[in-house]
Structure formats: structure tokens, C-alpha cells
Design brief:
Distance between the termini: 48 Å
Largest sheet: 2 strands, antiparallel
Number of domains: 2
Strand content: 5-15%
Order of helices and strands: EEEEHHHEEHHHHHH
Shape: globular
Number of strands: 6
Strand order of the largest sheet: 1-2
Number of helices: 9
Helix content: 40-55%
Radius of gyration: 21 Å
């Protein structure tokens, strides 16, 4: 492609401001990159997370302030599939297993690693999936209040002329926002109009983060 006699190479993907953008508009490579960076950060502090000298609540703070921001950089615009959700949950479960360690079964007297339900009972912080949902809703409210003059708002509200492909359509980012509102009993409401009430929208953002899911 040429613009003003300057040639631009056509590529399948490229990195812009630390985020991987692909021709297919897929986030799979971005998730892989985020998890790779998160694993590197996790391995750099895993000795702290398994240390018996630190309280578990302090280890949890290390995870949420040091590792989690690396994994969730730019997550406000993600539209996750079940596959990506599972990969993110597995990553978080790995970290919390390191923090809390195995638990002794009082019936048989053996030590066993905790699974998702057991880990959820031990920490009170919202899980990684809920954090992503709340950040997405926070960004949605911010964009909704920008107004029609802003480019971000116009891109979000634009209706594509091209028909979507046959078969089960992929969830769009806006679809996820509507599903989150439906989960809280607000299905069918115009979320753009709802977001104009900043106080109420902020309460919804907090509510999404604190919903408990298996």
C-alpha cells in the first residue's frame, strides 16, 4: 500500500503500543503474549509466593499488584471465547496453588492440591475473569459518555454494511456488555443511555466484579 509515495508492507500481524493486532482481528495471539509475559513475571517471584515467611494475604497482594497487571494489560477491549477464558483461569489457579499450597484431607490424612472451588473458598478477591468483565464495563461507560464527535464512540456505534458470516456468530465486544447487564437483571436496557448516569454505572461495574462464578 502506498500513501504519498511511501510504501507500507502488508503483514498478517503487528504490535502497536504493546498489543498484538492481527488481520483476522483475533485476540488469541494477544492472550498468548500476555500469558507468556505473566508467566515470566510469576517465575521471577515464585520463591516469594511459596515462602513460609510471608502471610498468604501479602502473597495475594504481590500477585494482584505485580503479576495480574502484566496479564491484563489492554483487557478492556477483549472479547473472550471459552478457550481463552479457560487459559486465563488455569493461569490464575496455578498462581494461587503456589500461594496456598496443598491442603490436608482430614478424613484420609493425605495432602492434596486444591482445585478451583477450593481455591475460590480461600481468597476473597474477584477472580481474573470478573476483573476483565468489570474493566470492560468501565471502559464501555467511559466511551458511552464521550459523545458522537469522538472517533472511539463512532467506531463502537458504527453499523457494518457487510453481512456477518453464516453459522453461529462470534460474540462482539458490545454483545458481552449486554450479556453482563442481563446477568445482573438489566437485560433489554439501552446500556448507552444507562451509562450516562455515572454513579449508577460505577455501581454496576463494582457489581460485575463481585459476582461469584464457578
Amino acid at each position: 500500500m502506498k500513501i504519498d509515495n511511501i510504501s507500507f508492507e502488508r503483514v498478517e500481524e503487528y504490535k502497536f503500543m504493546g498489543k498484538i493486532l492481527t488481520k483476522q482481528n483475533s485476540i488469541q495471539d494477544e492472550i498468548k503474549s500476555r500469558l507468556k509475559s505473566g508467566n515470566a513475571c510469576y517465575h521471577s517471584v515464585q520463591n516469594l509466593l511459596s515462602s513460609s515467611l510471608l502471610f498468604k494475604n501479602l502473597k495475594t497482594k504481590v500477585y494482584r499488584t505485580t503479576i495480574l497487571p502484566v496479564v491484563l494489560c489492554g483487557c478492556e477491549t477483549w472479547s473472550l471465547t471459552l478457550r481463552e477464558e479457560r487459559r486465563l483461569r488455569v493461569f490464575e489457579a496455578t498462581v494461587y496453588t503456589r500461594i496456598f499450597g496443598p491442603k490436608r484431607d482430614e478424613v484420609i490424612g493425605e495432602w492434596k492440591n486444591l482445585h478451583n472451588e477450593g481455591l475460590n473458598d480461600l481468597y476473597s478477591s474477584p477472580n481474573i475473569f470478573r476483573v476483565i468483565k468489570s474493566r470492560s464495563m468501565g471502559w464501555a461507560g467511559h466511551v458511552a459518555c464521550m459523545g458522537k464527535r469522538r472517533g472511539v464512540y463512532r467506531v463502537l456505534m458504527r453499523k457494518h454494511e457487510r453481512k456477518r458470516p453464516l453459522g453461529r456468530p462470534k460474540h462482539r465486544w458490545k454483545d458481552n456488555i449486554k450479556m453482563d447487564l442481563q446477568e445482573m437483571g438489566l437485560g433489554g436496557m439501552d446500556w448507552i443511555e444507562l451509562a450516562q448516569d455515572r454513579g449508577r454505572w460505577r455501581a454496576l461495574v463494582n457489581a460485575v466484579m463481585n459476582l461469584r462464578v464457578p
